[in-house]
Design a protein that fits this description.
By secondary structure, this protein is α/β, with parallel strands linked by helices. It has twelve helices and 16 strands. Bound molecules: (4S)-2,6-dioxohexahydropyrimidine-4-carboxylic acid and zinc ion (3 copies).
Amino acid sequence: QTVDGRGGVLLPGFVDLHTHLREPGREDTETIETGSAAAALGGYTAVFAMANTDPVADTAVLTDHVWRRGQAVGLVDVHPVGAVTVGLQGTQLAELGAMADGDAHVKMFSDDGKCVHDPLLMRRALEYARGLGVLIAQHAEEPRLTVGAIAHEGPNAARLGLAGWPRSAEESIVARDAILARDAGGRVHICHASTAGTVELLRWAKAQGIAITAEVTPHHLLLDDSRLQTYDAVNKVNPPLREDSDCVALRAALAEGVIDCVATDHAPHAEQEKCCEFAAARPGMLGLQTALSVIAATMVADGALDWRGVARVMSERPAEIVGLPDQGRPIAIGEPANLTVVDPDATWTVDASALASRSANTPFDSMTLPARVVATVLRGRVTAIDGEVRAL
Ligand code: DOR
Ligand code: ZN
Ligand code: ZN
Ligand code: ZN
């Protein structure tokens, strides 16, 4: 299969450090197969599948299974993220070494879904990760600060009486883990940075030479908490949509490199989990098929990033952060390549029901967005073209 890329922008295949694929446990909302299709259509050649499956991905048996299933589907490399801790309470370190040594070669471990409350445990995790040369991805929530919180966040949400995850819950963990990383010598990656305060902490930590990196989601760049006025649970996400001034700070930080990369936090949920009362709904939004277009709308349209910059934040930097040797870099002639072709002049209207994902919870439904992925190539093989996936 050949791709006619005339008039398009040729980019290295996108790498998503934060995807929820729900297999095993919630295959009614997403599977490795349906999530891989969404990823290929979104221009991705590698995704990192978060550990908060059911059961949690805290053993090599499970992480190797996810890797092999992704390879069998063949649309995108599905790199499992291992859980940092084991057990319901998450009071014990998982066998990071066994997961790193398995077929999956797990490169990133996360506390997403199971926060590491205990700073001593986090310090030990960073030390263990340093020895293995892997990364701890910190979901940046201190849950004890969300108990009884009166505001989902910001004046809009406070007026609406929505409970949630205050800035202090995010920023206190970013500060704590930056300092723990400094002294333990490990590398920490901040998931879904969402506040202007987090940006300032990252700036400070990087200036100290601390090995810290961070991602931001497309939805936190584009959407603010004014969307919550409808009480539509499609806008419920962790961390919550914040104020417009936070969006502005996050965009500037991404352009500047204080925030390293874009990650989707693609979080499929069943219709009944999103069509209920706001307080009872699950947090999370789809992201894989709309990420490039939302980045075009928020960053490229106003010149904050050029297409070279898009290659950096959606492919090169995430590949560097996890140390993927065959992603996010220029290729030699004749070498099988990971590529994404984008039509920069296209516009399209998002139709939630037409997405490849098994769920439909996108806040971008009915929005008209700029730029579109035309084709995706994984190691020289076309995986998506003109909105259709090409299975193995
Ligand atoms: O909104 C979110 N949903 N944030 C997370 O960190 C987890 C995710 C999920 O698993 O649904
Ligand atoms: Zn948490
Ligand atoms: Zn998270
Ligand atoms: Zn997540």
